[in-house]
Structure formats: C-alpha cells, structure tokens
Write a structure and sequence with these properties.
Elements (H helix, E strand, L loop, with lengths): L8 H8 L9 H20 L6 H21 L7 H14 L1 H19 L6 H20 L1 H16 L16 H20 L3 H20 L5 H32 L7 H29 L4 H14 L2
C-alpha cells in the first residue's frame, strides 16, 4: 500500500486542480498551481523521446496556464513582469515546432475536404513542398525540448520565493479586470476590421480570461464553469481560424502552376470555413464580454465574498 492511498480524496483533488482552493491564501494558491504546472510540463518533456509532437502541445499549454495564473495576480506581484517573460520565452522556443505540426494537420484536413477531386500529382507536389518547409524545423525538436526542460527546472527554483501583496479578492481584482478589459477591447477592434493579427490577439486575451475563470471556479462553480466553457469554445474557434490563416499564408508562398486548381479549391473551402468560425466567434464574444469591466469584476467580487 502506497502513501498516496492515505491522502484524502479532496486533498488530491485540490493538489491536481487548476483552481484557487482558498479565499485568503491567493499567493499560496498561485505558487501551488505554478509548481504543479511546471512539474507536469517537465514530466511531458521526459516523455518526448516517444511522443515529441505531444510534448510540444502539452508543454506550451502548461506554460500558458502558468502565465494565466500570473496575470491574475499581476497587480499584486512585484516581479510579475520578469516571471511572465520567463515562461513566455520558454513557450516561444516551441512555437515553430507547434506551427509546423499544425500546418500538417490543417493540410490533411483541406486535402481531404477541398482537394478530393484535384489531380493527384498536384497533391503530391503540395505534400513535398510542406515537407521541405517543415522538415528542418521538426528536425531540431529534441534539442529545443531539452532547452525548455532546463529552463523550466531553473524557473522552478524561484517559485517558493515569490511574494504577493494583499489577500483574498484584493490580490486578484486588478489582474482580473485588466485581462477582461483587454479581451473586450480586442473584440470591438476585431469587429471593426476583420484582420488576422487582430483576431489572433483577441484569441490570446480570451484564452487568459478562460484561465481566470477556471482559477476562480470555486467561488460559484455552476455559474463560473459555464462561463469558462464558453470562453474555451470561443478560444477554440479563434484558434482554428488562426491555423487556417497560417496555412493559407504558407500556400501563398508556393509558386507552382501545377498547384493552381488545388490551391483555388483550398482557398475557397478555407474562406468559407473562416467566415463560419468568425461569425460564431463574434456571437459568443458579444455575449461573453457584454458587461463593462468594473461591473464584471464587481459581480465576481460578490461571488467571492459569498464563497465559503
């Protein structure tokens, strides 16, 4: 019988949950969550010899969750800027690997859905162009993963030294409002002019809002988890749109007359898909960010004060 069997189930749930588990000790909760996410990321990196592509996705996800937690306490954590930059830079090391993998996934989707009737030689040429483009990037995956592992291990040493001012909701109100306000503004800007960069920037802000709702879910699980689910769905729609935009950019860089019919079929299918994704995104976004920032934060403060 192992020691873990003596640990109460509710304690295990708190340890593995991406949630603040106590109203008062926000700093303790953030440190616990960050250490947890670093440990999970390192575990994934230790598996990269067998599943390097999965390691890239999972490690980037854990780094984003860490940055989500840091952004929640950004106004009460003096060293927020440096620590946020540390985990941002570690995730960026893996961005080329992630982008290369997504290009392959998006390519397979459109070859199946848009290029079914295209001549096989053109599809083969496109396959070869993609392999030539992503091959050198993916070839360096092991070295990049090892560098990121070393960076995470070094960053872990400092977490216990972090000091955050304030307790309870005061420690998170500022960060919550900043992130919500930025997501709301990016929605308005994206609606004014639909642009790839604006949509991608909005998606990043939505993602951090999603993390904040997950972190605060204990304040009123039924309500906040529903909101988190909507933010997750919105982030997914915007993420798919960004992936298609990146694939079209790759396609535009290929000048081969043999690909003309295939490229035209893909662009038509992609633009139709993007229009549906963007329409769905704006519909959800207008509901999710309907409240003004101060009113939204005030509502969450009321949930927090009743909690417990």
């Amino acid at each position: 019988m192992t020691q873990q069997q003596f640990v109460p189930q509710e304690v295990i749930g708190q340890v593995m949950s991406y949630r603040l588990a106590s109203k008062a000790s926000v700093g303790d909760g953030v440190r616990r969550i960050v250490l947890q996410e670093i440990g999970l990321a390192i575990d994934k990196l230790d598996e990269h010899d067998t599943h390097p592509e999965k390691s890239v996705h999972e490690v980037r996800k854990h780094c984003k969750k860490i940055r989500g937690a840091l952004r929640l306490v950004r106004c009460s954590f003096d060293d927020y800027g440096n620590e946020n930059a540390t985990f941002r830079d570690l995730a960026r090391k893996l961005s080329p690997l992630r982008d290369a993998q997504v290009l392959h996934d998006t390519h397979r989707y459109f070859v199946e859905h848009a290029a079914k009737r295209a001549a096989q030689p053109s599809v083969s040429i496109l396959n070869e162009a993609l392999e030539s483009y992503t091959g050198p990037i993916l070839a360096n995956s092991v070295e990049e993963l090892d560098r990121v592992r070393g960076g995470l291990a070094a960053a872990r040493e400092d977490v216990d030294k972090w000091s955050m001012a304030g307790t309870g909701f005061d420690a998170i109100a500022g960060g919550l409002q900043v992130t919500y306000r930025r997501a709301r503004k990016r929605l308005l800007r994206s609606q004014e002019t639909i642009d790839d960069d604006r949509l991608h920037d909005w998606r990043k802000r939505v993602k951090y809002h999603w993390y904040h709702m997950r972190l605060l879910a204990n304040a009123w699980p039924r309500i906040i988890k529903a909101r988190a689910g909507a933010a997750d769905h919105l982030s997914g729609l915007l993420g798919d749109d960004h992936d298609i935009a990146a694939y079209l950019s790759f396609l535009d860089g290929i000048n081969d007359t043999a690909l003309a019919s295939t490229a035209q079929a893909i662009r038509q299918c992609a633009n139709e898909r993007r229009a549906a994704l963007q329409e769905g995104s704006f519909t959800i976004g207008r509901r999710l960010f309907a409240e003004k920032p101060k009113r939204f934060v005030g509502r969450l403060a009321a949930y927090w004060n009743v909690w417990g």
